[in-house]
Amino acid sequence: MTVTPLRYGLDEADATIGPRLLACDPPGGARVVEAFGDVVNADHIAVVVPGNGHHLGNYFTSQEAHSPRSRGQLLLRTMQQLAPESRSAVVVWVGYHAPPEWYNAITNDAAYAGASDLAALTHYLPRDAHITLVGHSYGSTVAGLAMAGARAEDCVALGSPGMGVVHRSELGTGTRLWAGYGETDRIRLIPQVRLGRLGLGRNPLHPELGATSFGTGDIPGHCGYYAEGSESLLNIARIALGRYDEVTSAGLVSTSSTTESRPPRSARSIAAMEAAA
């Protein structure tokens, strides 16, 4: 798949749509990148990368709670509530031609095509900001393939079907990898293979990739990772704020929606247990 690289800049904003667009295809295109909060002066920036089914045609019209815009706005509010003293921002990145349905997402063509644009975004953002990639479902595959070329301190994979790679070295160095899986999310049933452009690679908790597992609490199915007030959303926000000591591991649930959470278990406890199994 060959696509024209995105050009990032506030001059790309279409005044009829909104003033905070960092990039946008012409009408009829698929890609749109929107910023929430003061990105220019932010201390912490989370880049939300959604999975299949999202595109410019439904980006501004979807009223569903799990739409990319809703998730981005909710994540920003949560970050601001947890750390009102910090300057936070969220970029919602629908910067690739996402597969229209789940059954179209068995190849990594779209992820490969979009990864370089996602990596380029991180170099456009302020150099002194703490940047976190947050990929949900197929979006985590895009984020995984972008990691080697991205400038990001953290990458959070939510309900990942695979990071697009089979070896940790393919993810580059210097970026912490985190993973969250809801107890009722069946995405882990997807075979962890990659044969050329077929298959999405290993899931982030595979010992070879060694992600840190975090708690998601009682979230529903595959689309509940941003549920308001959930342990999942709180942990995403904590990671994006660099508050790693407050992140709870799988099986531990915080009793508070503030920064006062239970101490987490050993950072790599889940990955270590799987490696020993």
TrEMBL record:
Positions of the DUF1023 domain: 25-193
Signal peptide from the UniProt entry: none
Domain of life: Bacteria
Disordered: annotated segments: 251-277
Family annotation (Pfam families): Abhydrolase_8
Biased composition (Low complexity): 254-277
Stretches that traverse the bilayer: none
Protein name as catalogued: DUF1023 domain-containing protein
Species for this entry: Nocardioides albus
